[in-house]
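Re-running PpiC domain-containing protein to confirm reproducibility after the cluster update. Everything else is unchanged from the original entry.
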Amino acid sequence: MKNKILVFFIIGFVLYLIDIGLNNYDDKEIFISDSEITSLITAWRSQVGRNPNDDEVARIINDLVQEEILYREALKLGLDQDDRIIKRRLAQKLSFLKQESVEKLPSSQELKDFFNDNKEKYYIEPEYTFTHYFFSSENNSFDRSNKAIKDIYGNKQINADPFLLGKNFVDVNLNKIKNDFGESFTQSIKNMELNKWVGPIKSPYGHHIVFISNYKSGYFPEISMVLKQVEIDLLQLRRDSAIQEYLEEIQSEYKIYINPELTF
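Result of re-run:
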């Protein structure tokens, strides 16, 4: 019986020592690594354009120390809990780490295969060079533009309104035209004849009369013309896939609970 008590006492004492050892970490000690300081000084130099002097280095280190102290005190108060911004930031950092794990550059054949499988992505859209007269919707735009198209063929003065984005556009593609003038205007542009005034053409701002002086057909480029972009896109696809594979690997370990009766 005495031996059993002694054994239990020894086990208890050992567990006590282990507990002391595990909790002996002093969270009041802050160790600043050389790499942290070097990184901050490099960033400072990049922003300011010169090396920091001794006082500035001291301030850089002091700011780092104060930030670490505030960080630890915030953790003690549980300020990292249920904070959407902190959660998103940590998720982003983990995503970046997984993306950086994809370091191997694709081979020439892999780039060619990716390009051939995604040619539509690299299609060079048609480009238009045109000028226009603008008539604001705030000032009877349709009637004025309708009169202007007749006047221009009669060599009469055109009394148009100023257009914020300008009068002349050179080698602009349909996406740019759509962003600047809207869908209806863009569809009209696509069917217009060259070197002929056409209108009225409606936009969200009013009406226009338009003269297209040049047109460049769209085409699929050779891979050499877009090789760098192809490499960027393939690497990004692989990085996104690495994150997705990681999520699929660990997601089964989690149980998700959502209130099925929640209404919006």
